[in-house]
Amino acid sequence: MTTSSTPDKMRLDAQYASDMLNSPVEPVFDELALFAASFCATPIALISLIGKSQHWYKASAGLTESDQPLANFFCDQTIARKRPFVVEDAIRHPEFLHKLKKGGVPGIRFFAGLPLITEDGIAIGVLSVMDRKPRKLSQSKLDSLAILARHAMTTIELRHQRSELQRALSSREEVYHQLHWQSRHFRESQRIAKLGSWEMDLVSWRLQLSDEVYRIFGVEHMSPTVSFDNYLQSVHREDHARVIQAVTQAIAGQSPLDLIHRIVRKNKEIRFVHERGQLMAIEDGQVLLAGTVQDITDSYHSQRERDLLYTSISKVNDSVMITEAWPIDEPGPRIVFVNRAFEERTGYDHSEVIGRSPRFLQGIQTQRDQLDRIRAALENHQPVSAEIINYTREGKPFWIEMDIAPVAIQGNDVTHFVSVQRDITQRKAAEGQIERLAFFDPLTKLPNRRLLMDRLEHAIETARRKRNCGALLFIDLDNFKSLNDTLGHDKGDLLLAQVARRLENSARKSNTVARLGGDEFVILLEDLAVDPIEAAAEAEIVGEKILAGFVPPFNLGNYEHHCTPSIGVTLFDTKALGADDLMKRADLAMYQAKSDGRNAIRFFDKRMQSQINTRVMLDREFRRALKEGQFVLHYQRQVDDMGKVTGIEALVRWQHPRRGMLYPSDFIWLAEENGLIMHLGRWVLQCVCNQVAEWLQHGDMVVPPVAINVSARQFHHHDFLPNTLEILEKSGIDPQHIKLELTESALVEHMDATVAKMSELRAHGIRFSLDDFGTGYSSLAYLKKLPLDEIKIDRAFVRDILTDPGDAAITQTIVSLCQILGFDVVAEGVENEGQQAMLALQGCRHYQGYWFGRPVPAGQL
Ligand SMILES: Nc1nc2c(ncn2[C@@H]2O[C@H](COP(=O)(O)O[C@H]3[C@@H](O)[C@H](n4cnc5c(=O)[nH]c(N)nc54)O[C@@H]3COP(=O)(O)O)[C@@H](O)[C@H]2O)c(=O)[nH]1
């Protein structure tokens, strides 16, 4: 229901203040309305309050919904007039005619309203009676209605006062709760913080203390205030003077109160308190000394403990370093503390190291394996001990023994590592000295028998595991005793020291050269070949080097001495004997060398010895053969399927003065082993070039390319390329006449270098043939890379080509492969017509073999 009149702000405020709007139904107003209706004998009575946009019917009797607009209108008029308003017949009232016309015949003809006016004179509502027919209202009745209206207003005002009272009460309760909470909160805070508060009256020197102060001092809360003297009774006697002085100064305004002193509780317990205070002005101009007292006993003790710990750690003789616990990876954990001993030992001031990772202490000699071990432990937050080398600020290495422990200062999480380090440089030096004495010969500085035996045991084990061989060379100086007897022990010692160096020069660094005592030395060779004969050859080479190393005279002061060794050799392999037995065998072999005339090498094993003898002899004969020109070349033709000669292969032979003609299989291995293959290879090339030049000179034959076999060791020698080009150039023949035959094994080693070398030779016109194809790696990958001209099918496949389908399939595959890759293909070892026919059927067009001609001297080709 809306009100048509302009809201009066004051009226609204008054209504709100009276809490009448929106309030529930109250019987007292209903009774008033009913009484007004019956008293005036009207069918309708109303008590309404006029809001901003609404009429609130606080009580109504007989009013229908259709009556409401007109009733509201009259109420608004009453409010506006602020005095009794009577309309005896609405339709006769010219002032309201326009209003009544809009609504047709009005439901209400008679209206008498009394404004409800507050003490402040504000009309907030209306008490009215209405009738549906016109009528008159006597003055006495109107006066009575006015009394009723005042009564209604009084009721409203009483109601308002009651609300005000309630509001005041609830707000007081809230304040009370707030205060209560604050006071409890204050007390709790003080208790938790062990912080009491006090105020001291500067005239009476009496103190008012908070509850917590009593608790801290351990005294009962008796009276509201205590005297300063009383307070002092709890202060430790020795601290009285300080407390009085501090309080006096604070009162004088010289300095705020701030001191730590002891108190003594009744039970004699001593506690530490921190007093703080300052002057404070309160409302009436009075000045107080207000302050706090805090029980700091626990933190005081732990601070003292920390100080003690810090001072102690700072002063201990061991270096102490504390780092954070992370990061373990780069840049490493940061140093947070180092003590004085650390500074003294490393030469670094703590300001230079705090914040850095301890890694700056490491250097070239710091043991990687130890660092890895430490790291692994730290990653798992485990304690670890290690002995490592660190470096001083000047870069000097020193040994430390260090214990690192993880530290968790908060909960269980490791936050730091503490490292305690002792300098063990001297101990290490002493240990080194002891070790040298225990394991090394002081005269020659070589390992002694003890260390040798240790290493020998180890070497035997390694050989067994790796399934290869090792060797023991027992060396005894010939006629050493007579040197000692004639020139004296000084000279003897001098010789022994020099022998030691020469023996070291004869062996590899990985081998052990030891002195057993006197003039006896041993060399332990490890990692020799798997095959005992090959291993014996390797040991023999070392023995030869030793003999050669003794050829130059030894310089013993102003005396040149010639000395020879006798060397006994024994091998050990997977079936090796124990170290002692091996030593005995090598010793026995050495005696054999002595009895065979000294300055010699002898093997313990007879079969080995004879093989070595043969090899040594062959080696000597080979060298002589090169000098005396005992090598010859035979040539074998290569033909096409028309029988035309398309190539020639040069094959070396050794015309041995005693043993007759020797074939490459008898001596090429030796030439490769002793390195003379380069020498022989040069001779072969030279010889072939001369032969080609001669054939070309005669002009009675078309000279096809001549194939020369080149072994792997020869090809990879750094002199091979320049030597070959030099010989060819000097011979003046066209390099097109030369074809180099290489085996697969020679080519797959050092692939890139091989391809480069072949390419350079090929650029000069030299051709390349791949020998023995199919027996080795046969990898398509390397075939594609190599600058080849020709592939030779190994004679092993040709031999059974007619009977073995597998071999036939291989030859067919090789032929097809060559066709695809664009290589010539030559089948070697063709011994009959059937083999040739089969190869021809498979598409091979070039052959070499006894069927077409054996290797023969040039003149018989
Ligand atoms: N580094 C050098 N190696 C060389 C040199 N000369 C030869 N050799 C290498 O020795 C291998 C064997 O040579 P050789 O004993 O001379 O045998 C060749 C022929 O005699 C033999 N052949 C030829 N036809 C047949 C036959 O029908 N049947 C049969 N059983 N054997 C036959 O084959 C050898 C030639 O083969 P290849 O070289 O593979 O073409 C020799 O393979 C070279 O590796 C040298 O100067 N330097």
From TrEMBL:
Ranges where the PAC domain occurs: 382-436
Domain PAS, first and last residues per copy: 328-357
Annotated ranges, domain GGDEF: 468-606
Signal peptide (residue range): none
Domain of life: Bacteria
Organism expressing this protein natively: Keguizhuia sedimenti
UniProt xrefs under Pfam families: EAL, GAF_2, GGDEF, PAS_3, PAS_9
Name of the molecule in the record: EAL domain-containing protein
Ranges of residues in domain EAL: 615-861
UniProt cross-references to NCBIfam families, sorted A to Z: GGDEF (TIGR00254), sensory_box (TIGR00229)
Family annotation (SUPFAM superfamilies): EAL domain-like, GAF domain-like, Nucleotide cyclase, PYP-like sensor domain (PAS domain)
